[in-house]
Amino acid sequence: MHICDTLARDETTFSFEFFPPKTEKTWESLYATITDLEELNPSFVSVTYGAGGSTREMTHDLVLRIKTESKLTTVPHLTCVCHQEHEIREILERYAAAGVGNILALGGDVPADRGDWDKSQDAFQHASDLVEFIKKFNAEGLHPDSRGFGIGVAGFPEGHPATPNRLVEMDHLKAKVDLGADYIVTQLFFDNHDFYDFRDRCELAGITVPIIAGLMPINSVSGMKRMAELAAGARFPASLMRAVDRCADEAAAVERVGIHWATEQCRDLLDHRVRGIHFYTLNKSSATRQIYETLGL
Known about the structure:
It is a single chain. By secondary structure, the chain is α/β, with parallel strands linked by helices. It has a single domain, classed as Alpha-Beta Barrel (TIM Barrel). Helices cover about 45% and strands about 15% of the residues. The chain has an eight-stranded parallel β-barrel with strand order 1-2-3-4-5-6-7-8, surrounded by five helices. The protein is globular and about 55 Å long.
């Protein structure tokens, strides 16, 4: 099923993101998490794709394992940095043959060990180019679903780090939608006003596809610092920082603050009729489960 079909059917979607494990032990730990969260009946789950395709095979293997061993709809991420057209085509052909129905098309980051990479060598300079290529692939009729892949793209409520001009940023987002994206999943944010402003600006730009809000509960002070170092950045409201500072010496208390903050974000988003909430789980189930239980989802 295409995610756009799910969005058309359900007033609000709930979904989870996982990343491919690197060892056999973490494989089994992750799959225990997936099995646990499957009980919450998510609308779909997504699987990340390492910078420059560094987890290409592991992403593929995890997507197929979830598809064959669960009833979950799985959306693999696909990025265009450090890729040529034949590589992307091969990936799409493999997913099509396996009956995977959706792709999250992203620009992606250059791997740390290839920091001097010349992006002009890439076949696809922007995520919009990747969206256009997937639509052309769909038109070739190689997918068992006559419509081909459903396509999601990323949005950035706090702004895209590579596009400081917010007007140009919206032009780029609209280009992705005009070329065939069915929905938008946002980067994580901690102030819902950023999301509501982003949603309004999308409407002003003529972007009418559903927008799914991406949330990640803070689980530690070190995790908070890592979020701040992400390519897309992360803006922490002062009230959240004060709450973390009050209990920074107690790890369990910091985690409780993070879960409470994310729960209140969810409650407010639901009150404002958000189309979907996408949880960045960090391959763990506890925080997501607690949020579900508190909100009675």
